[in-house]
Hints:
The protein has a 9-stranded mixed β-sheet, with no helix packed on it. It has a 6-stranded parallel β-sheet with strand order 3-6-9-12-15-18, with no helix packed on it. A 4-stranded parallel β-sheet has the order 2-5-8-11, with no helix packed on it. It has 1 helix and 25 strands. Helices cover 2% and strands 31% of the residues.
Amino acid sequence: MRDNVRVHPTADVSPEAQIGAGTSIWHQAQVREGVCIGRHCVIGKGVYVDFGVRIGNNVKIQNYVSIYHGVTIRDGVFIGPHVCFTNDKRPRAVNPDGSLKRSDDWVLSETFVLEGAAIGANSVIVCGTTIGRWAMVGSGSVVTRDVPDYGLVWGNPARLQGFVCPCGERLQEVDSSCMESVLMVCPKCGTEIRIPAEVCRQTGGGE
Length: 207
């Protein structure tokens, strides 16, 4: 029994999916078997959630997002409209002999979106990547490699441009005297966060 779950009549939700209390699933969304969605989530119009996907609590997924098998989304994540997650780094419809590929003819590459992260509209998340805690991906980006905790990335391919506070404001550097980390502060709420110095050196596209 699904207590306090709102499912629009046009949505297609498998009876084998687990849906947490307080979650809403809107027009024409499809949630397949084996999916686990936590409490108080919002699944927007036309969202596709493939089999076995795991979604945490308090997650907002906007219209027409595609989340394929192998993706795990943690608590408090925001996913903007038309974001697409992939799950195969070498996709083909057929094998070299021309036969149609079966479910066991490819290698799954898992993707993780960690707590509090936000992904802007129309972004593509290439499989095998991890988007860190409270990271932010700018709209229209193509994420091809891991994004660090609090990282702000954008572009194609997405590059690290700075760091953001959990409140969403861009962090400002206040002390880089420590060899191991850089102290940053949020100009809006005053939160102080230490970012590993090695990660800071990646800002602007460096490796």
